[in-house]
Design a protein that fits this description.
The complex is a heterodimer of chains A (231) and B (257). Chain A is built from 10 helices and no strands. Chain A is mainly alpha-helical. Chain A has one domain. In chain A, α2 runs antiparallel to α5, α2 crosses α8 and α4 crosses α9. Chain A is flat. In chain B, α4 runs parallel beside α6 and α5 packs parallel to α8. The N and C termini of chain B lie far apart (93 Å). Classes of the chains: A mainly alpha (231), B mainly alpha (257). The interface between A and B is large, with 116 and 112 residues.
Chain lengths: 231, 257
Amino acid sequence: MILAELLPLAPFIVLGALLGLDVVAFPQAMISRPIVAATAAGALAGNPLGGLTIGVALEFFALEAMPFGSSRYPEWGSAAVIGGVLFGRVEDGTAGALTVAVLIALVAAGIGGTSMHLLRRLNAAVARRQQARIARGSGSAVTVVQLTGLTIDLVRAGAVTALILALAVPLYDRLLATFVLTPVISRAVVVGTASAVGLAAIWKVTQSTAGARWYLLSGLLLGFGVAWGVA
Amino acid sequence: MTGRRMDTSPRLPVRTWLAVFSRLFAMQGAFNYETMIGNGIAFAMEPALRRLPGGPRGPAYAAALGRHSGYFNAHPYLAAVAVGALMRAELDGVPAAQIDRFRVAAAGPLGSVGDRLVWAGWLPLCSAIALLAFGLGATPLMVLLLFLGAYNVLHVGLRVWGLSVGWTHGLRVARALDAWILRRGPAHMGRATAFVAGVALPVAAHGIIGPGRALLGTVLASVAVSAAIVTALRGKAEGWQLAIVVLLGFTIYGVAR
């Protein structure tokens, strides 16, 4: 993909950079959560409901890995933007659209997570370089380390978004052109997979709380009743 | 001389408070595996440290900045407690050895309490509420406002409270961590999350699939079985990684069929 073809994607790359920055570095207000990031990307693509739909599917996955300290986890900010853009730019009801967009977003989340791991090692190297100045009490050295980390993270998230979008857009269009299963089946598979991961995640989070499993069971019964009633 | 005790606590101008508070949001800007958020702590405190005797060129400023940029780890929101307490200790002239002991002692509790309260409690609860709102037909804007509004009430509130309580109590801030929400909050949030997520899961799934009881029933039955498999495989593979395999297989089948 040449630069001219990347230009229309520029707003999404900027969005991916900003939301990728939110995951850890700044401001951690959870605008990077898939339900927010994918909806924002979908809205930017002219389809906020499509963005929200894929955002909900990705949010189920994101329940599994919360940003605990130094643990490694997928980077959902730029990944959800990528998913939101892909799903938001196709017509509603396109066969395979949700499946392939979620698949690409999951791969992007994994790549983004690896890039964050590398960023942390780079941040350590930057801090080591400034260590002597910081030990002497240089305020500017502390600021340099902090601003360098923020800048690199912004660039990292933007680069992940740009690189994956550049590869994914033509691949996505090609796959959808040859996808033959019905949209309903395609959506059902995505929802089934995402909900299973989400349910296992909620089970893991709540199992250490006394009585929580009964609350979960009660909620599931109530939710099933509501969904069954309106289905 | 009246009987009233003279207030000897240091005072900071509003612009210093604003500078410190705004820097709290970039606490993890240089997060790394060696000093964790140590540099972020020093970065957040720096505007207040300029008020040490001798100013930003004095030895007290240099010593404090060097001390606080070393290893420190805590939950990023509750790190505000440490920032407030350490700022107060430095401006009160507390001995360095005492400050160092506090840094070592505070990191663990501020990490574990924050992790349980926010990452394992409030964040999944807000996610579940947003998923339920989607399933019940809320517009995209409503879902976003609900999620971001609810989540950031606690997020911003914790940073404000943490900075304030740390500054007020200084190195004796441990008693503030006995607050009800920090002790009991995680358990209540765990139960609320379990219930709301339980309701949200089938309702949101229906929101994506659309009408049709047979399909919904089939999907939800497969969800129960698949969730048990994901739980059983914990430690060997993450659910999102297993999902890549499933969706890749389905995509290949859908294209090649």
